[in-house]
Amino acid sequence: MEVTLLNFGATIQAIRVPTESGVVDAVLGYANLGDYLRDDFYMGATVGRVANRIAAARFWIDDNAFSVDPNETQTGNCLHGGRNGFHRRFWQMRSLQNEAAVQCSYVSPDGESGFPGKLEVTVKYQIVTDYSLVIDYKATTDSDTVVNLANHAYFNLDKQQQSIDSHDIQIEADQFTPVDGKKIPSGEIREVEATNFDLRRRTAMRTTSSEDGQRRQYDHNFVLKNGDGMLRRVATLSSPQSGLTMHLHTTQAGLQLYTGDYLSDPFRPRAGLCLEAQGFPDAPNQPAFPSTRLAPGDVYQQRTIYEFVPGKPYS
Predict the structure, then answer these.
(1) Residue range 249-260: average pLDDT?
(2) Which one is catalytic: 87, 152, 220, 247?
(3) pLDDT at 188
(4) Taking 80 as the threshold, does the pLDDT of residue 209 lie above it?
(5) Which of 120, 137, 179, 298 is most buried, by the most CB atoms less than 10 A from its CB?
(6) Distance between CA atoms of 134 and 58, rounded to whole angstroms?
(7) Catalytic site residue 276?
(8) 194 Cβ neighbours under 8 A, 6+ residues apart
(9) Whose CA is closest to 154, among 258, 5, 6, 300?
């Protein structure tokens, strides 16, 4: 397996996996830096300081209110850290030769995009075994802040199909967090039973239900069984046509599934889907959700693994 990384956004540009039918590049990516500089889709990037949405681009730490970049203009929310979040920053990169790894580092100054505290961040990408990419995130701060990091790769395990509608998905989650029209959680944690969010068995992406025959469309957070922070396999994505499967393992409590419905040129809608292992959306404003707060002396750490399993095509 070969992984191509960029220092712009600590970005995954390509993951090339050998299969019986040839090498499959499992993620979407641009061919040149100019396209990344113009990108509006967070293509393969590390997103932060807070991944996902913060309602009205505002939150409190104790009695202190903080206003951050409302870059989602139609809603006034802050999305993925703002327009100049971590996905728009040039990171320091160094190779860890004895580990088959690359470490990306970035120092976010106090007040950047409105977030408090100087945050020192590292993201280490490492290939372990022949077909697994391990991502280790670490962050420390000099002042109370919030942090929620994730990778925003768009996966397509068979680009000859040009759409993730040909894929199957399974997510090990009994619950999800419903959202309003601005994609902000209500605070409720709802059971997936008897809903379109029940993906606990292998499910084809091509229909929403047997009644209406529509595509499955998601931009939602699934509540994982990871309250103890242990590393677990939480999702499986597979392509019957290529035979390639990806298992996602994470220590995170949430998994945002986004089906890429708003992708546009040079891609088409649903050319890839995101499986973003992270904290819950709007967690800084939702006291019942797992906390994204980080204090001086504490260390934010999480691990996510993309494990690829080549196999024979199936139907």
Answers:
(1) 97
(2) 152
(3) 95
(4) no
(5) 137
(6) 33
(7) yes
(8) none
(9) 258
Of the candidates 224, 289, 225, 211, which has an alpha carbon nearest to the alpha carbon of residue 254? Answer: 224
Are 248 and 306 contacting, i.e. CB atoms less than 8 angstroms apart? yes
Biggest alpha carbon–alpha carbon distance for the chain: 59
| Alpha-carbon distance values, 217 to 27, 165, 269 (Å) | 19, 10, 11
Q: Is 211 a catalytic residue?
A: no
CA–CA distance, 124 with 45 (Å, rounded to integer): 13
- The larger pLDDT score, comparing residue 85 to residue 209, is at 85
Which among 123, 216, 228 has a CA at the least distance from the CA of 171? 216
Among 145, 312, 190, which residue's Cα sits nearest to residue 242?
A: 312
Residue 178 CA to residue 220 CA, distance in Å, equals 7
6 with 14: CB under 8 angstroms?
no
Which of these is catalytic: 167, 220, 247, 276?
276
Mind listing the pLDDT tens digit for each residue in 179-200?
Answer: 999 999 999 999 999 999 999 9
DSSP single-letter state for residue 240: T
Question: What are the tens digits of pLDDT across the range 102-157?
Answer: 999 999 999 999 999 999 999 999 999 889 999 999 999 999 999 999 999 999 99
Residues 6+ apart with CB under 8 A from 103: 93, 94, 96, 122, 123, 124, 125
Strand, helix or coil for residue 229: coil
Is the distance from CB of 147 to CB of 292 less than 8 angstroms?
Answer: yes
DSSP-based three-state secondary structure for 230: coil
What is the per-residue pLDDT for 225? 85
